[in-house]
Specification:
The structure is a homodimer of 916-residue chains. Chain A has 916 residues and is α/β, with parallel strands linked by helices. In chain A, helix 13 runs antiparallel to helix 14 and helix 36 crosses helix 37 (897-909). Chain A is elongated, with a radius of gyration of 33 Å. At the A-B interface, helix 25, helix 27, helix 29, helix 30 and helix 32 of A face helix 25, helix 27, helix 29, helix 30 and helix 32 of B.
Chain lengths: 916, 916
């Protein structure tokens, strides 16, 4: 027996044998795959001998661009141990050991990292392999696979060029199947591949097996900082300094004949959660054939018929592993001449549906506690349950689908077709929705997949790259739609006699695997009646301390939010109501006459035009006021007995006006054409009025409470409508609970002035109506100054609601509209920002300001109720921050209420989901 | 003797007699005028008997709109005391006492508050007065004056209407002089005035003298919250809750014949500081005649000839008062039949010149210590010394002045003529510079005077309303320019045969009293050679702890700043250099090609158009780089041996591009005209490029270090130029001290990335040049987030400089450009903001954030150098705040360096100037 590397203490240990790694579950050190191998090995399961080079070695490699001192020597010692165990030697011409070199980070990054199989082959050992297996064809096939993989991954030769050599040979042989090639033909392929590698890489293919090993390990390390891995980690928010481990595993072969095969399987259905082995196997194949989706595999239940004993052993192992990990497992296995080998186990990625169903199942089965079940479900899982579905009525009129494929990841998607990921990225940056159609996807496509609304492939199965990645992202995906001919080169697809080109609209229902031409309207899913989700969220409600409210502007939204578990409306935006049909003209009348009306009020004897402006202004407000009574009546009624925070008018007024640029051009054109007349005069007047409201930086201009202070009549109209609506409901025996919110307050003076006005109006109305509705007056905290003087503001505010969209804008000095298109992407990509602060609350800056505001606010008014109503309220990481800050509640869009409920429970449990 | 009101302790004391007020110097309680009367009375000077109703009574009145309980009774008791002292009684038909009722706040508000003279007259007492004085004409003149004043001020009748009655009577009598009217004619005038008052006010003129007194006191109280008083206090930053006292003083008469008169005088010349009585008197006149500027008075030195004894007594009193108050005094007096009465003494308002000269004189005279002398000079005084003067060469070519007047307040002004204050306000809001021309000014004109560049009147003397107010504001004023016919009704002036209309340009040199047609260029004053100022600022430098640097972009500005005492450049804005002649085209080449050049660098084989863009981008940068070396060489040379902080490019790039709106209109017009060709194509391309840089909110967009991160080549070019310039100077034996400042940093990542880039470039250049210039790299702190993470930023920043313009914008969420035109005025006016935060640093919000930044920054890097380079650096109140925050220095525009030096000394002395 060789020296056991694991007992050396005089140097850092970079390498561990699976069979005796002292902490086999340590994913931080061994990566997920390495930990799985070690745990399975040490549990006595059938696993090929293996060793793992640690993530620490990877990080050391990134710094020095070389193996850290001692690592290589430890790896060689570990290799000798595997050799001893298998009785073979790497590079032994007579009885060669072959190994796979696989990456394996702490978090699974499907297809992102590189793997080299069959390492140890060269012109000599291939002969030994042929003798060993008594199968020359097998040996040469293994060799040519190895050269292709090593050439591409380690030596950087274009995969297409190498595939082309192989494809040409098949063509020459008059076949399309790999298996039809003879040993001799494969030998020729191998030689030509080596020459191609040498020509393309500018150096010969290495024949020294130890050099092969060293280069392969370096390639895995190098792939950690490769573009696609970095892109992926940025997308799913995995830190770049985790590093990847490298696993060196003795090869077993699934392609040694019909008693061999390879497969992947989940212990339960990762799409629906059904408790039944779910997966696929390919007889006489190596693992890469399954994952790459090149040959369509056979469902795993069929294995029971083919190899009943193997199947039984596999089922038993699956049960054991699930019980051990207390989670659904994702397994890779190979059968070599009838013997089962486990190659990998890991917690299974799954759809939201499956996550919720299995978590609830496992509580029923006694495997999990309720709290652990909550931890098993990530907020992203719940989010997936919220993806839209087709409007069934519209689907019926949409005719027959173009074609069908596998329902790889559920949800409906509508978008313009694109056929390559760069174009997908570009078009989405231009504001388009796209569906990405590919023959099959590879890790290079990731950036386009991340942007697309849906993904469609014509090849590959339920565990193909496209399917796995889409499920993880919660994005609709139809895979293996073989009826659809996807022609990437010509940017078109054809199915059912119809051809669609890039830019044409398409719709897909990935729950059914159906693809349609054109746009089919989508609707929100009916999650209210989801029994398992209701059960899980009920447990979440028992645990969480943070309240969950919703942002809703209409009775319909409010009703939905309530059904989804919201216990109040945290933000009702009144200005959205202004844009409703039949109102905009009155809104414009109010705005365009506001300044003159103000002058008219100030002057003792205003002239006729000012007087007219004042009359139009007041008439416009009266009309709007009538509409608003109905608006508020509806939403307060929908939330009967629950609080509704109504925010007074907030956006810059020019948002309601015609476009300044358009008017400028139109007036210039009319002038140039020598036109005259009242039309032109009116346009000119309109332009003049629009110019008066034009601002350099509207985000920092006349908006929020500044409007109410300059034009108090607008706010008066709104408050009167709120009070009237509430009084009416009360008289009908209901329990309206309006809370009036003043936006964009930055000074004590604004709060005092607005509060005084509001109270006067409400009291007047209630007195006139003989009503006694209880109400509260509070403010948005959305400016850094508001945070700094929160004590002054709290003197006259009964509640605070953080408007973190604006607060993020002003704290960072970013205009969201400008930053996201111009530099925020580059900031996140280059690591200047760990995350887009508009998606997840910035802890160092924005949250610190919030902390000051909370302390000062509650000091001035003990028990001050504080919430958040920015979009962050529905982001799980931000919910965590809100919990830590001690907020009373978060408020988010109705559809995100379930996510927030779960995230709030996680926060209360101190649980940070692993996908973050 | 009547009950002494001052000894009552059982109720709040609202009223104090001048002769025994227990704390005669208490201006807070008695107001300035009341305190002066009490102090003079108690010092034994000849003062008519008087009592003062306190400012507290005024504030109580504002709350309840009525006299506070007990006040009236105390006032009546005090009146009885005056009656006892004078032996007359108010309302006594036989021997009536007359009183004046005068307002008097803590701070003098010239002409702002109302005064009623001769109170106590009615149809009966006027007869008594005639008998008392044996002068029927005098009595009726006093009565008609009283009716006019009381009618206007107390009863709200239009002054014009009342003047008209009097003017008509003069016209009917065929005279222009008041003094030509007979007693009988004046009696008729009085009767008609009473009828006019009754008709206009809708109630009869009160005959009850106690009712007159009560109403007059209420009118004074009411005037405190009158529009003009509120406007004035807003302008000069006096709190609205100070209140005004009311002084009731026994009347003495300067209009009882040629042995009587009235006047005002300063103990030293308030314009030049010359140590000599300066003032005017009017024989046979009441005080209002002097202040209103209706009759042109006689210089006070002539009094020596007319009334030598009175003059000697007056000079002695002046010396006594100056020694008592240790300050120049502003005196009002009346001579009644040869007897001198002092009516008022107060610290004199004066020009900046006079303030500096008298402060230095008084140290020489042993009256003041150096520290007290510093306290006697306000920063606004120094500011006045910095007002521009005509370019002498240009004046010579400007021809003869149109006319001349009194040099009432020095300085040169250029602007469009306007003839009424509303128009002046409107035009300045539209961005125009104006000169306000009026026959004479009144408090109602204040808002226009405050906006005008200069003030011109054709009537009134050196102590007229226009002169006093202009001197206080440090604004050029020519008063009493009788050669100039100012025709307000027709909006024109005529002089020297020339007529100028509203909107025509005019120039005035108020130091010489000369008015010119057209625009004469102005230059900065030569304050560097001002001996007294140098002396005073030398004392300031001895006292202050805060450094004073300057913001300068050119060698010329830097040289001037250095001459004015700046010990470094706190901000050199490099982008201003980009706009210089011959550079803008290269700047545009760089910007318009920047995005394509970036793509070209990213792509392996960019297409020809991208490649060309890259070449144009790089060529443009090379050319700019050559210019910049010269720029930096110049400024570093000018500041040899002193630090120069150079800020890298900061503004949004569209600022250098053609107007988007103009291009849109031009392209639309060309399209409509059916034009085609390369011109149009190019315009279209240009518009497209401009659109790519267009932003919704450029203030919050792609600017500051964000530019340097997206387009590192621009920053590299600048830093290379800085290093090259410094290396060259060093090789010439000079001592350049460049400090490179990165703008708009908000994250640790930005600072690290930029610092790394900058250091590499500087080191490369210095190594190549074989130079070892010392340099520092730091950052602007101008975002709330930068304050919150200042510790992270300080890890790689060697200095901080607060950019308080931007920090104020983001902290408040105000775009300065938008806010100042749209709502900031209303905010300050209504008291929501105590002050415009862009003028004076906001203590509650912005300064609190700065405090956090300073604490965190110095915690991370002890001894971190921190300054401020926003415009606040030259604002005295903000300098005070910076001193308290513990900054190392302030940096301001060169011309404000002397102000900052004095303000820093005041801060070190813990002195807050009284005018704040």
């Amino acid at each position: 027996m060789a020296v056991n590397v694991n007992t050396r203490v005089d140097a850092q240990r970079w390498v561990f044998l699976s069979k005796d790694a002292p902490d086999p579950g340590n994913k931080d050190l061994l990566g997920g795959k390495g930990a799985g191998l070690a745990q399975m090995t040490q549990a006595g399961l059938p696993v090929p001998p293996a060793f793992t080079i640690t993530t620490e070695a990877c990080n050391a490699y990134q710094e020095s661009n070389d193996f850290p001192p001692g690592m290589w020597e430890q790896a060689v010692e570990a290799l000798r141990e595997i050799e001893a165990e298998t009785g073979k030697r790497l590079g032994d011409a007579a009885d060669p050991l072959l190994v796979s070199v696989r990456s394996g980070a702490k978090f699974s990054m499907p297809g992102m990292m590189d793997t080299v199989l069959n390492l140890g082959l060269n012109d000599e050992t291939v002969q030994g392999l042929a003798r060993q297996t008594n199968n020359e064809r097998f040996a040469w096939d293994a060799y040519r696979r190895f050269i292709q993989m090593f050439g591409r991954i380690v030596m950087g030769v274009s995969g297409e060029k190498l595939d082309h050599v192989f494809d040409a040979a098949k063509k020459a042989a008059g076949t399309e199947q790999d298996t039809d090639l003879t040993a001799e033909q494969l030998r020729a392929v191998a030689q030509e591949l080596k020459q191609t590698v040498e020509r393309e890489a500018g150096r010969p293919f290495p024949t020294d097996v130890m050099e092969q090993l060293a280069l392969a390990i370096k390639a895995v390390f190098g792939s950690w900082m490769g573009k696609r891995a970095v892109d992926y980690r940025n997308e799913v928010h995995i830190a770049h300094d985790l590093g990847t481990a490298v696993n060196v595993v003795a090869m077993v072969f699934g392609n040694m004949g019909d008693d061999s095969g390879t497969g992947v399987a989940f212990t339960r259905n990762p799409s629906t959660g059904e408790k039944k082995l779910f997966g696929e196997f390919l007889p006489n194949a190596q693992g890469e054939d399954v994952v790459a989706g090149i040959r369509t595999p056979i469902v795993i239940s069929r294995m029971q018929e083919v190899w009943p004993e193997v199947y039984a052993e596999f089922q038993a192992i699956a049960d054991t592993l699930e019980a051990t990990y207390k989670d659904v497992q994702d397994l890779e296995f190979t059968v070599e001449r009838g013997k089962l080998y486990m190659l990998q186990t890991r917690n299974a990625k799954r759809t939201g549906r499956a996550a919720v169903v299995t978590a609830v199942q496992m509580v029923d089965e006694g495997i999990l506690s309720r709290e652990d079940a909550l931890k098993r479900v990530d907020p992203t899982h719940v989010q997936q349950l919220l993806v839209p579905q087709f409007d069934e009525a519209a689907r019926k009129t949409a005719g027959k689908p173009l074609g069908k494929g596998l329902a790889a990841s559920p949800g409906a998607a509508v978008g313009k077709l694109v056929f390559d990921p760069d174009r997908a990225e570009q078009m989405t940056l231009d504001g388009e929705s796209v569906i990405l159609a590919r023959k099959e996807t590879s890790p290079e496509d990731f950036h386009g997949m991340a942007r697309a609304k849906g993904i469609l492939t014509s090849r590959g199965g339920m565990t193909s790259h496209a399917a796995v990645v889409a499920r993880q992202m919660g994005k609709p995906c139809i895979a293996g739609a073989e009826e659809i001919d996807i022609d990437v080169a010509n940017r078109r697809l054809t199915a059912g006699g119809v051809t669609l080109y890039e830019g044409d609209w398409a719709s897909m229902d990935a729950a059914l695997g159906e693809v349609y031409a054109g746009r089919i309207p989508t609707v929100e899913p009916d999650i209210e009646r989801d029994r398992e989700l209701a059960t899980l969220l009920g447990w979440a409600d028992d645990v969480r301390t943070l309240g969950v409210h919703a942002n809703a502007d209409t009775p319909g939204e409010a009703t939905r939010a309530r059904a989804l578990g919201a216990v109040g409306i945290g933000l009702c935006r009144t200005e959205h109501m202004f844009r409703d049909e039949g109102r905009l003209e009155h809104v414009r009348d109010v705005i365009l006459n506001a300044l003159d009306a103000k002058r008219a009020r100030k002057e003792a004897t205003p002239d006729a035009s000012l007087q007219e402006a004042r009359e139009r202004y007041e008439a416009g407000l009266r009309t709007l006021g009538e509409f608003q009574v109905g608006d508020f009546y509806g939403i307060l009624k929908a939330m009967d007995g629950l609080p509704v925070i109504i925010r007074l008018i907030d956006p810059p007024l020019h948002e309601f006006l015609p476009s300044r640029e358009r008017l400028m051009v139109e007036v210039a054109l009319a002038d140039a054409a020598g036109r005259s007349g009242t039309d032109l005069d009116e346009m000119r007047l309109e332009l003049e009025a629009v110019e008066r409201f034009h601002e350099q930086n509207p985000m920092l201009g006349l908006r929020g409470c500044r409007l109410g202070i300059l034009f108090p009549e607008i706010v008066e109209m709104q408050v009167r409508a709120i009070a009237l609506a509430a009084a009416r409901l009360k008289s009908e025996g209901l329990d309206p609970r309006p809370k009036i919110m003043i936006p964009l307050v930055g000074t004590r003076g604004e709060m005092v002035m607005e509060r005084t006005l509001l109270e006067r109006v409400v009291k007047d109305v209630l007195a006139a109506e003989g009503s006694d509705v209880a109400y509260k007056i509070g403010t948005m905290i959305e400016l850094p100054r508001a945070c700094m003087v929160a004590d002054q503001i709290a003197e006259s505010a009964e509640f605070f609601s953080f408007g973190t969209n604006d607060l993020t804008q002003t704290t960072f000095g970013y205009s969201r509209d400008d930053a996201e298109g111009k530099f925020l992407g580059e900031y996140v990509e280059s690591g200047i920002l760990p995350i887009n602060p508009f998606e997840t609350l910035d802890r160092d800056g924005v949250a610190e300001l919030m902390k000051i505001a909370i302390e000062k606010g509650r000091k001035a008014r003990s028990g001050l109720e504080i919430g958040i109503c920015g979009e962050h309220g529905g982001d799980p990481a931000s919910v965590q921050t809100c919990h830590e800050l001690g907020l009373n509640y978060v408020s988010c869009s109705p559809g995100r209420v379930p996510i927030a409920r779960l995230a709030a429970a996680h926060a209360a449990l101190g649980h940070v989901p692993a996908d973050r």
